[in-house]
Amino acid sequence: MGTIIRELVEADESCELAGIVGIETMDTLAERAPEADVVIDFSHKDMLPHVEAYVHRTNAALVSGTTGYDEDEMARVRALGEGVPVIHSANYSLGVAVLRRLAAEAAAALDGFDIEIVETHHNQKVDAPSGTAKLLLDAVNPAGEFDPVYGREGMCGKRPAKEIGVHALRGGTVAGTHTVHFFGQDEEVALTHRATSRRIFAAGAVSAAKKIVSREAGFYSFDELMFG
């Protein structure tokens, strides 16, 4: 992702690349990385303290695509929005943003249907389920009245009505496929987004970076920034 984002920024005449920091040089981020108007972070959850320090030092806007944060870490990302404009999204694809909206509408319209979410990624992905699957889960379960079940095994019994299954598949070089299934009596509705390249996520992040630099301090969703 970092390599693709760098290529897109360098090819964009309206942008200037200030610098690149990786996991192996994370200690330089907070203290010695050059100042920028916006920082795009697709690194690792362990980089968060360094990202926080850099934002506090430079007042740079933050576009975060790092996944795997727990609730406390996400609260820290949101807190950065008190001083600078911040966006965090597990997926910067416009197609996924539309999928999330469609899934929310379908869940509201298909009352009583069983819902299952299946995500597939390459064999190098370290977290499961994907951040995008979690976004979709929130979309179909906004009030938290359904219980997520992450895979099933053994004599798990009859499927409860208030349950949403979330399943992670890993293999090969799959960039990312997400399907939300709605199972009713004698019918099924399935909504799928299939990424054939990670370039779509990088392009969305760069678009978000160009938009967020002109916003006031706050924590923004991808939908708010791109469609608001």
From TrEMBL:
Instruction: State the GO CC annotations.
Output: cytosol
Pathway field: Amino-acid biosynthesis; L-lysine biosynthesis via DAP pathway; (S)-tetrahydrodipicolinate from L-aspartate: step 4/4
PROSITE patterns found in the cross-reference section: DAPB
Binding-site residues for NAD(+), renumbered to this chain? 31, 65-67, 89-92
State its location(s).
Cytoplasm
Binding residues for NADP(+): 32
- Which BP terms from GO are recorded? diaminopimelate biosynthetic process; lysine biosynthetic process via diaminopimelate
- Its EC number is 1.17.1.8
**Protein name per UniProt:** 4-hydroxy-tetrahydrodipicolinate reductase
Taxonomic source organism: Slackia piriformis YIT 12062
On whether Lipid biosynthesis is a keyword of this UniProt record, the answer is no
The Dihydrodipicolinate reductase C-terminal domain, residue ranges: 95-225
Subcellular location, principal: cytoplasm
Tell me yes or no: is Oxidoreductase among this UniProt entry's keywords: yes
- In the record, what lineage is assigned to the organism producing the protein? Bacteria, Bacillati, Actinomycetota, Coriobacteriia, Eggerthellales
| Active site (catalytic residues) | 121, 125
GO molecular function terms attached to this record? 4-hydroxy-tetrahydrodipicolinate reductase; NAD binding; NADP binding; oxidoreductase activity, acting on CH or CH2 groups, NAD or NADP as acceptor
